[in-house]
């Protein structure tokens, strides 16, 4: 019986870091338009990251669903949602993301993110969200939703229109460009 209790206790010690949810809150002072607040929730068990950027009308939410292989960003000012493939070579892995965020907070890093990814947004609306996973379906339900594709080598000649830019805790910059962002 003692061996069983000891085994369960050790299993709990080793599994708890894997199954926990990490929450990180960051106040970003000095962004254009005033203050913004970002909160990051990481669910290691479901392999989902949720980032909320609260900055008035310029607020947005993004979900990175590592299991489905997609990210989705809900842009409040545009009253729309964008879904794109999750590039695992650029996006920080769900298991190392908490440590990367803590390092950025410790150094107080500001300025441009260390990695950048640019997407071009399709004009065609997505009608069935179910194939992108429940988390993304819940984020985008009831909104015009568009599919975006990564631009491997962005240049001025490729797209010169408007883009929506999201800076994730100075770790990753995401740009969504396309006609859906024209004024």
From TrEMBL:
It is found in: Cytoplasmic granule; Golgi apparatus; Secreted. InterPro entries: BRICHOS_dom, Gastrokine. One of its GO terms (cellular component) is Golgi apparatus. Residues 54-148 form the BRICHOS domain. Residues 1-20 form the signal peptide. Keywords: Disulfide bond, Golgi apparatus, Mitogen, Secreted, Signal. It comes from the Eukaryota. The keyword Signal applies. One of its GO terms (biological process) is positive regulation of cell division. PANTHER family: GASTROKINE 1. Has mitogenic activity and may be involved in maintaining the integrity of the gastric mucosal epithelium. Belongs to the gastrokine family. This is Gastrokine-1. It comes from Eublepharis macularius (Leopard gecko). The lineage of its organism: Eukaryota, Metazoa, Chordata, Craniata, Vertebrata.
